[in-house]
């Protein structure tokens, strides 16, 4: 088995690769980036101290978008045009903001206080959800491709971590329901504990 993917079972950046790699043989090395031993190992393979990281033969690749590009070159999962790239970048931006808010909460900061920094993270998430609304009924997010995988991981993670709400966004709920029974969604489900 030549692919080794380092990650956690909750990270949306990792999960989208686990979905993508559903039909590929790979070894998954679970790590907790906030635990000393794993943090030391992670720092040896990625100076950014972030998951996911992919190792393949002598290559070590970090950043989930780069890992996607690497795997896509090898396995030709899909062709991306510039609109697809923008779509991915928008979802990733929202995901980054969600992770930032979670890290702030875990650091004991009150993300409900009226700070420009936190407001910009929340606004970015809502702005991306607004932007994606028409896409949810179109080709881009109806098909099961890397953008829809990413969006599924983002929504499912955000609700799990209580970072945002989709109460007033029925199109997001519908999107989750449409894709919920896919084998790669089920096999990568966020552990409920
Ligand atoms: N741009 C990176 C973001 C990865 C990322 O934010 N990973 C989070 C887990 S979801 C992480 O490792 N956070 C630890 C930290 O930033 O200290 C990617 O796409 O891989």
Q: Could you please describe the fold and organization of this structure?
A:
The protein is α+β, with helices and mostly antiparallel strands and 193 residues long. It is globular and about 45 Å long. It has helices spanning 12-20, 36-45, 64-75, 82-106, 116-132, 139-142, 146-160, 170-179, 183-187; strands at residues 3-7, 27-30, 53-56, 59-62. It contains 9 helices and 4 strands, in the order E-H-E-H-E-E-H-H-H-H-H-H-H. The protein is 55% helix and 9% strand. It has a 4-stranded mixed sheet, covered by helices on one side. Bound molecules: glutathione. Glutathione is lined by residues 11, 13, 33, 49-52, 63-65, 99.
- Summarize the main sheet: 4 strands, mixed
Query: Which value, in Å, is the CA radius of gyration?
Result: 17 Å
Give the low-pLDDT segments: none
The SSE string, one letter per element, is EHEHEEHHHHHHH
Helix/strand/pairing class, anyone? Answer: alpha+beta
Characterize the overall form.
Answer: globular
In angstroms, what separates the terminal alpha carbons?
Answer: 29 Å
The quaternary organization reads as single chain
Order of strands, widest sheet: 2-1-3-4
Task: Give me the count of strands.
Answer: 4
How much β-strand is present in the residues? Answer: 5-15%
- The number of helical segments is 9
Helix fraction bin: 55-70%
- Write down the overall mean pLDDT: 95
Tell me which ligands are bound: glutathione
């Amino acid at each position: 088995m030549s692919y080794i993917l380092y990650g956690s079972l909750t990270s949306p950046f990792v999960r989208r690769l686990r979905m993508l790699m559903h039909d590929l043989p790979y070894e998954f090395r679970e790590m907790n980036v906030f635990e000393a031993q794993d943090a030391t190992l992670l720092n040896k393979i990625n100076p950014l101290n972030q998951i996911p990281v992919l190792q393949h033969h002598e290559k070590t690749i970090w950043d989930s978008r780069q890992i996607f590009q690497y795997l896509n070159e090898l396995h030709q999962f899909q062709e991306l045009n510039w609109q697809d790239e923008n779509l991915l970048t928008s979802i990733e931006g929202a995901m980054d903001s969600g992770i930032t808010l979670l890290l702030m909460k875990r650091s004991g900061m009150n993300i409900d206080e009226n700070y420009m920094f936190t407001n910009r993270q929340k606004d970015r998430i809502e702005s991306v959800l607004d932007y994606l609304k028409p896409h949810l009924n179109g080709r881009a997010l109806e098909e099961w491709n890397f953008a829809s995988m990413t969006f599924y991981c983002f929504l499912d993670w955000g609700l799990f971590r209580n970072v945002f709400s989709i109460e007033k966004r029925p199109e997001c709920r519908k999107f989750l329901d449409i894709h919920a029974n896919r084998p790669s969604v089920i096999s990568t489900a966020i552990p409920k504990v």
